[in-house]
Design brief:
The complex is a heterodimer.
Chain A (H helix, E strand, L loop, with lengths): L1 H5 L3 H18 L6 H26 L7 H18 L4 H25 L4 H20 L4 E2 L3 H8 L1 E2 L2 E2 H19 L1 H11 L1 H6 L4 H27 L1 E2 L7 H11 L11 H20 L7 H36 L10 H10 L1
Antiparallel strand pairs in A: 1-4, 2-3
Chain B lengths: L3 E10 L2 E11 L4 E6 L5 H8 L7 E6 L2 E2 L11 E4 L11 H6 L2 H4 L7 H14 L15 H13 L6 E5 L7 H16 L3 E6 L2 H7 L2 E6 L2 E7 L5 H9 L18 E9 L6 E6 L3 E5 L6 H9 L6 E6 L2 E2 L5 H7 L1 E4 L3 H4 L7 H6 L7 E2 L2 E2 L1 H15 L15 H14 L4 E5 L7 H18 L2 E6 L2 H7 L2 E6 L2 E6 L5 H9 L7 E2 L2
Parallel strand pairs in B: 3-8, 3-9, 6-7, 7-8, 13-20, 13-21, 16-19, 19-20, 22-23
Antiparallel strand pairs in B: 1-2, 1-4, 4-5, 9-10, 11-12, 11-14, 14-15, 17-18, 21-22
Helix pairs in contact in B: 13-14
The chains are: A mainly alpha, B alpha/beta.
Chain lengths: 346, 501
């Protein structure tokens, strides 16, 4: 499993992140300002948790484009329950998380039972969940979110913004699942080959539904925390989250084709995206250029990752050819094998 | 002047040298047979000769000219009929024959009628008794094989025809027809490269034979000067045991698996029984429905009707998790798509079936996983530099050992091996046969061995069930003559199914 993680180029993107921090701090005097860094981390908290959930989906070879819509819908339902019905905010939080998991489960069931492509299904469900949100709010924001819950979104503990603690909790959960549980292993198996997984007796459909449900749960969490931050529930919440979460995961080394990658990498990828968005504002880049700039950086980051793999392959090929040309006996099995076997049996 | 030559061809893939400085010469008007075990490099050579692969070093010389990046049109003189059926199932016979239109001389607007009337004489010549308008997915497998060959000969201006294991899906009768066609092509002044791993075919149709082993062109001789023992010794290096049998000698009475009147999409009304410690061979041509039958028994494919009893109790349908839990394991023929988890490490592949036993207080235990992995690697002699090696870099034989090793660690009562020695070198094959015999005798495991190689069945199986087009065509004991078994395949029809014990 470690190799699966390493081959996701964690070092490469880690270096890119550091490079960007260095570049941003040199280029703008405001970057390293206390409040600016805090703002970056606060933004990162939201993108980051959804990116990690998306990474889990990518690992099993699926995609969920409705994450933003689920987030905003759950935020709206939470707002309605807290403001409209006057329910206890913490109770509402739990209920809304459950509703998010339900939305995710519905996505998962449609994809697995009806054997449909997850990208297409979740684009449709994005419309459904978003539409329900519009109907409920009739386009207006729900204001008057109770103060007690607002701390979770806009407050900080020490220098660290409150939402980021949730992100770290999600990180621990995701790492635990992928490294320490059987379900995590089965997820990678499914991403490598669904057929092989089924032949290994893995309950493929059950696990797929589970990961979708998890994504729904995390989306709801992000949505509610954002509502707490803003102080109101709106349909506009989470609009860019779907695309950014996929980009973060891919930058973080999770393959779009599945079966490989470390979900923690998605958090690093989200960090890169959060810094880009912050830098764009700080540099006073013309607002109309922002999409182009962030798009360009995303493509560059992915390209570097792919180029690094191709370079490795080329080095391997050159080495073998040189060995053959020198008339060395190129071993069919790598030379250390025999020694290893001796040690094992000793 | 030879029409086709390879000089010093070398082709390397990660972890394996597929071709090691190969020389070969093919003259015009010659039937040149290339024989070798699975994995000897035959298909890789062909891919270099047709321009699909570019060799690391070495040259391909066609009609005296060396092929370079600017003379790739020389490859147009080589026609190729691949080993796997490569036709478009949802297009018609005529369309499949003439695609791509540029190289078969069809110009202008395409009309279905025109294609079909152009196809008729070709179908006749190749004795393919189907309508040119039929869809390929509706014609029998043998017709598809001939169609693929006919298609290859339509390439304008070809001089060398390469046939890659063309008799895989053909009965003996069809094979005879094929040989006649090959002789006709030779009489036209063309050359035919005939790749096979079946000895009889060499002596039937070949003028020259080149024997491949482990990526090298081991030896070349005129067929008239060669003999069967000589070819075998070149193929195997003379060190490998050709004669021993590996049948189980400890058969029990308990019935482990009973399949009763099972029907599914690709098989009909199949009944068979497997006893403790028995190795049951399931023989038939490619396309006979053997894999589909056992996959349905296992729960991977759907069952329309009939029952499966495992260890005396009915096995729930369509549930691979239950099947494995109760002790039934199926090992697929398609190692790459349905066997290994290609992007993961050897360690992960080894532990995936046993995760239940590798838990500790805080989740999966790395220590326990390592211990299990090392044990399997040692016991089955898996050659890998370390446990973190991505499994895709292991040779086919070692990948197969990983698959088998991890399955045995899950303590099964019945294992279904689907073409377990496909693409595996001779030495490893014998290791696998020994392993199966030990499993059956020492642990009382019931084994179903699906194979298309009559030799393998003869050496390993206690009993043989023959399948033809989805139905049981016969059941035979260990001392039955090979010809009896082959005849069952040719003469098969439901009313003639024989039972001999």
């Amino acid at each position: 499993m470690i190799r699966a993680f390493r081959r996701s180029n964690m070092t490469a993107i880690g270096m890119i992140l550091v490079a960007m921090i260095a570049f941003a701090s040199l280029a703008s005097p405001y970057f390293l300002d206390y409040y600016n860094i805090q703002a970056v981390i606060r933004d990162l908290a939201f993108i980051g948790m959804i990116a990690m959930a998306q990474a889990m989906l990518l690992i099993i070879g699926e995609l969920d484009l409705s994450v933003g819509a689920v987030a905003s819908l759950c935020g709206i339902l939470a707002g309605m329950m807290m403001v409209g019905q006057g329910l206890n905010p913490y109770l509402v939080l739990v209920i809304a998380l459950g509703l998010g998991a339900l939305a995710g489960t519905i996505n998962g069931l449609i994809v697995s039972r009806l054997r449909l492509n997850s990208m297409v299904v979740t684009i449709g469900m994005m419309g459904v969940y978003g539409g329900i949100g519009l109907v409920l709010t009739r386009g207006k924001a729900i204001t008057g979110i109770p103060e007690e819950i607002r701390f979770l979104g806009k407050g900080s503990i020490g220098p660290i913004p409150a939402p980021f603690f949730f992100t770290v909790a999600i990180l621990m959960l995701v790492l635990f699942i992928t490294r320490k549980t059987r379900t995590g292993r089965y997820m990678y198996a499914i991403g490598n080959s669904r057929d092989a997984a089924r032949i290994l007796g893995i309950k493929v459909d059950a696990i797929r539904v589970f990961v979708f449900a998890l994504a729904g749960f995390v989306s709801a969490l992000a949505g509610i925390l954002y509502v707490a931050r803003l102080g109101s529930s709106q349909t506009a919440i989470g609009e860019a989250w779907a695309i950014n979460s996929i980009a973060s995961a891919v930058i973080g080394g999770v393959a779009l084709t599945g079966g490989i990658g470390n979900p923690a990498g998605a958090l690093v990828g989200a960090g890169i995206i959060a810094i880009i968005q912050n830098a764009i504002v700080l540099f006073g880049v013309n607002v109309y250029w922002q999409s182009a700039v962030s798009g360009f950086v995303v493509v560059t980051a992915i390209a570097l990752s792919s180029l690094s793999t191709m370079w490795d392959e080329r080095k391997l090929r050159r080495g073998k050819v040189a060995a053959v040309a020198r008339d060395q006996a190129v071993p069919k099995e790598p030379p250390a094998a025999d020694r290893l076997m001796e040690e094992e049996r000793a | 002047m030879p029409i086709l030559e390879a000089r010093g061809l070398t082709k390397i893939f990660p972890g394996v040298v597929a071709l090691d400085s190969v020389d070969i010469t093919v003259e015009l008007g010659e039937v040149h047979c290339i024989i070798g075990e699975n994995g000897a490099g035959k298909s890789t050579l062909i891919k270099c000769l047709t321009g699909v692969y570019t060799p690391e070093t070495g040259d391909v010389v066609i009609a005296g000219e060396t092929v370079g990046p600017h003379s790739r049109s020389l490859f147009d003189r080589i026609a190729y009929a691949p080993q796997e059926i490569d036709l478009f199932l949802n297009l018609s016979v005529a369309e499949n024959l003439f695609l791509p239109f540029e190289s078969t001389g069809i110009t202008g607007l395409i009309s279905q009628g025109r294609l079909e009337s152009a196809a008729r004489p070709i179908l006749e010549r190749f004795r393919i008794g189907v309508n040119p308008g039929e869809l390929v997915r509706d014609i029998p497998v043998s017709a598809r094989q001939f169609l693929q060959i006919a298609r290859a000969t339509l390439k304008e201006g070809y001089q060398v025809l390469i046939l890659d294991e063309p008799t895989t899906s053909l009965t003996a009768r069809d094979a005879v027809t094929l040989f006649d066609i090959v002789r006709e092509i030779r009489a036209e002044g063309k050359s035919v490269i005939f790749i096979s791993h079946k000895l009889e075919e060499i002596f039937e149709i070949g003028d020259v034979v080149s024997v491949f082993r482990n990526g090298r062109n081991q030896a070349r001789a005129a067929v008239d000067d060669a003999s069967i023992p000589w070819v075998i010794s070149q193929m195997t290096g003379g060190t490998v045991d050709q004669e021993s049998t590996f049948r189980s000698e400890e058969l029990g009475d308990d019935v482990l698996l009973h399949v009763d009147s099972l029907t599914g999409r690709d098989f009909t009304d199949v009944t068979l029984t497997l006893r403790k410690g028995e190795i049951l061979g399931l023989y038939g041509l490619v396309g006979a429905g053997r894999s589909e039958l056992m996959q349905a028994v296992f729960g991977y494919l759907p069952v329309y009707s009939g029952t499966v009893d495992l260890l005396g109790s009915p096995l729930p349908r369509g549930n691979t998790y239950e099947s494995i839990r109760r002790g039934l394991i199926y090992l697929s023929e398609e190692r790459r798509q349905m066997g290994i988890l290609s992007m993961l490490s050897v360690r992960s592949n080894l532990s995936i079936l046993s995760l239940d036993r590798l838990r500790s207080a805080f989740g999966l235990s790395r220590k326990k996983e390592d211990a299990l992995a090392r044990e399997i690697v040692a016991r089955y002699d898996v050659k890998t530099p370390h446990l973190d090696q991505p499994i895709q870099f292991l040779s086919g034989g070692n990948q197969q050992k990983v698959i088998i090793g991890r399955s045995m660690a899950a303590d099964p009562k019945v294992i279904i091996f689907d073409e377990p020695t496909k693409g595996i070198d001779v030495a490893t094959k014998v290791e696998l046969y020994r392993m199966m015999k030990r499993l059956a005798e020492d642990r009382g495991v019931g084994i179903v061995l699906i194979s298309s190689e009559i030799e393998e069945i003869r050496r390993c199986a206690n009993r043989v069930v023959v399948l033809y087009e989805g139905r049981v065509a016969g059941e035979f004991g260990p001392e039955t003559d090979q010809d009896e078994i082959m005849r069952a395949v040719i003469d098969a029809s439901p009313s003639e199914a024989k039972e001999m014990k």
